[in-house]
Amino acid sequence: MRLTRAAGLGLLISLALTACVPTATQRSPAETAALHQADTLRQQGNFDQAAQAYLTLAGNSTAHADAYRLNAAEAYRQEGDLDKTAAVLANIRRDRLSGDEPVRLDLLRAEIALHHNDPRSALNLTTQPSLRVPQDLQLRLLEMRARALDAIGDHWTAARTRAQMDDSLSGLDRAQNQREVLAQLGKLSVAELQQRARAMTPSDRMLPWINESLSQRGITVATPQPSLDQPVGTMMPGADANIREGYQMPARIALLLPDSPEFASASTSVREGFFAAYTDASRTHAPRAEVRVYGSDGTAAGAVKAYRQAVSDGAELVVGPLTRAAVTAVATQASLPVPVLALNQADDNTPPSASVSEFGLLPETEGAQAADHLIERGLHSAYVIVSAQDFAQRAAAAFKAELVARGGQVVTQASLAVGAINFTQTIAGMNIPATQPDAAIFISMRPEQARLLLPQLRVAHITLPVFGTSHIYGGTDDAGDDRDLEGVEFCDAPWLFDAQPGLPPHAGIAALLPAASGGAARLFAFGMDAWNLVPYLGWLRDHPGSYLPGATGQLAADPFGHVRRVLVWAKFTDGVARPLTGSLQLDAPSVAPPEPAPGSGLPAPASSAGQP
């Protein structure tokens, strides 16, 4: 197979090998012309003809013969004929090469050794202590070394070697290499990966890879908050005042949401939030995409069908789908010609892709950040009381993983059945102390259940501070009922409290659009962030530490395409939820709510089709 027809990392590295011959000896005009013709053939992809031309030059030139043979061997390799490559290599004397030529020779020999099932020789050739490797050959050296390590069964070192390559790659090449790293880690046991992770510092570059590998196996891992060093949108010097660094807007976007009755309410909130942000963005006069909405039937197959229709219609980015099963179905297609901003997380065993970014309101995010919040408050022991529902169980698992990773402990844990009223025996069985300086209670449940639990804790004379997830807040102030939640701190989307400057005020939007009020406000904010993420997806993924100040939190992306949220903290005081100072900048927003489209109840898209 010709390497010019192959995609991915192998081609990228092979093209780094360029014709290079010594210039110390003067070439005749005829030799120079013949060399130029050979180089041209190679650049055009005529590798076999180029190799023969280089060999002819080698036969006619004593001074440059070995360099020409090296070029011929590389051309045969690019043609995919390693047997001819090996035959040419046999006639090259290493001591007659100069510059980067000895390294290029060793890399070819290493590849031939791998081809002949001799990984030890390949490893020796790529780990010579005195070998000085030019920068443009580093990737190829690491690739050969990783392949040799894999072949001898040293999967951990192979993974580390490939992880070294990550920062130097982009696009499909980076995604392919990431899959290779995770494939190597996948050959190690869960116990070994966990043991290695425990021995690492938080800054170890392999820790995110281990966590991703474990997550793909369904193991809950610690997920510390992403670093937030620089917001996106820094003005570009000398550029149009409305164009900011990292801003790249596609011409056409497809918004893919389920239109089945089961998901109608959620889809409405996300869609209206998306177009509210779309309308608000007009005030900057920056380029905006044409948007079309596509409805699936609420199934994975329907989502794939809608994706393919959007691609056929010329979409350059697909935002959605919304359910986990649908995201998995779209992300695991054999071909993804158009990139995706998925509005949920794919199944755990779905490999990362350069074409897919994942953004979701995940309970695991809230559980992990609650653990971080406790540690920052000096609280290292936790008593966990959560609903038996799936979201609460997932939040609790993430809370425990993060708390333990940061040196804390979960003393006891209990689950409350939905519909239960009396929790006296559960509380008594947990042996929660009335007071303890370094302890707290973590809860994750709906408001109705929390309003029953908190008074019963007080009756038991338990005064430990209580921390929770956003699920305990209904999204609107209810001072009468929420007095039972007095003093509880919880993490939530900053837009609900107007705690993120630069966004339309929550109350003003909610007065216009019912889909932005109550518990639906989080999905509305989620839709707003989906639009605002669009022009910065590539920038966030390629620039660790950069973040987008969003409605659902400060948004950052990891190398695997997961958009991470850092939330604001709020506290019930006199029955009213108020943001805590210091958790986010609390300046009053200065943006007016968008005007709704006449008669529609929502801001108008540029165009729409198949709206749910």
UniProtKB/TrEMBL annotation:
<keyword id="KW-0998">Cell outer membrane</keyword>
<dbReference type="Pfam" id="PF04348">
    <property type="entry name" value="LppC"/>
</dbReference>
<feature type="region of interest" description="Disordered">
    <location>
        <begin position="586"/>
        <end position="612"/>
    </location>
</feature>
<protein>
    <submittedName>
        <fullName>Penicillin-binding protein activator</fullName>
    </submittedName>
</protein>
<keyword id="KW-0732">Signal</keyword>
<feature type="signal peptide">
    <location>
        <begin position="1"/>
        <end position="19"/>
    </location>
</feature>
<keyword id="KW-0573">Peptidoglycan synthesis</keyword>
<dbReference type="InterPro" id="IPR007443">
    <property type="entry name" value="LpoA"/>
</dbReference>
<keyword id="KW-0564">Palmitate</keyword>
<dbReference type="InterPro" id="IPR028082">
    <property type="entry name" value="Peripla_BP_I"/>
</dbReference>
<keyword id="KW-0133">Cell shape</keyword>
<feature type="compositionally biased region" description="Low complexity">
    <location>
        <begin position="598"/>
        <end position="612"/>
    </location>
</feature>
<keyword id="KW-0449">Lipoprotein</keyword>
<dbReference type="InterPro" id="IPR011990">
    <property type="entry name" value="TPR-like_helical_dom_sf"/>
</dbReference>
<keyword id="KW-0472">Membrane</keyword>
